[in-house]
Amino acid sequence: MRAGQLRHWVQFVELPSVPLRNEFGEEVQQDVVVHQCHAAIEPLTGREQFVAQQTQAEVSHKVMIRYAPNIKASQTIVLRGRRFNVVFAVDVEERHREIEIFAKELQ
Q1: In whole angstroms, what is the distance from residue 86 CA to residue 75 CA?
Q2: 75 closest CA partner among 8, 12, 19
Q3: Is residue 77 within 8 Å of 89, Cβ to Cβ?
Q4: Rounded CA gap, 85 and 81, in Å?
Q5: Selection from 87, 84, 59, 62 nearest residue 73 by Cα
Q6: What's the pLDDT tens digit per position in 1-60?
Q7: Cβ pair 41, 12 in contact under 8 A
Q8: How far apart are CA 29 and CA 20, in angstroms?
Q9: Over the stretch 51-90, which tens digit does the pLDDT of each residue have?
Q10: Contact status, residue 15 vs residue 75, Cβ threshold 8 Å
Q11: Which candidate in 25, 38, 41, 76 could, as Cys together with 6 as Cys, close a disulfide (CB 3.0–4.6 Å)?
Q12: Of all helices (H) and strands (E), which one includes residue 51?
């Protein structure tokens, strides 16, 4: 993976396991940032999308990042206000160098 391809700054967020409370004691739904990094994001072409949908639910984008052990399918990717649900993540060639993530953009 070439560093020049990783031109988008993204955050991986998830909801906390214990609900947060504000100063009035009310439960607040607030994302917790788990990981931040540079990423390459590209929409899938028709053929790639067809192949990806055969194995998993609807997938619209492919995200490439350097390896991080804490990436899970329960997380959401945030890119400049756009949100993507992680459908599945693959450690490319099991070498712990890069992760290929298939995600669905939320509307």
Answers
A1: 6
A2: 12
A3: no
A4: 13
A5: 87
A6: 677 889 999 999 998 888 888 899 898 888 899 999 999 999 986 655 566 666 545 788
A7: no
A8: 7
A9: 666 654 578 899 999 999 999 999 999 999 999 999 999 9
A10: no
A11: 38
A12: helix 46-55
The structural domains of the chain, with segments of one domain joined by +, span 3-105
- Yes or no: say if 58 and 104 are a contact pair by the CB < 8 Å rule: yes
pLDDT at residue number 37: 96
Q: Give pTM, 2 decimals.
A: 0.79
- Maximum Cα interatomic distance, the chain, rounded to a whole number of Å: 51
**Can you name the CATH fold of 3-105?**
Thrombin, subunit H (2.40.10)
101 contacts 77 by C-beta, under 8 angstroms: yes
| Distance (Å, whole) CA 3 – CA 19 | 37
Distance CA(66)–CA(38), nearest Å, equals: 8
Residues 42/81, Cβ–Cβ less than 8 Å = no
φ and ψ at 10, to 5 degrees? -125, 160
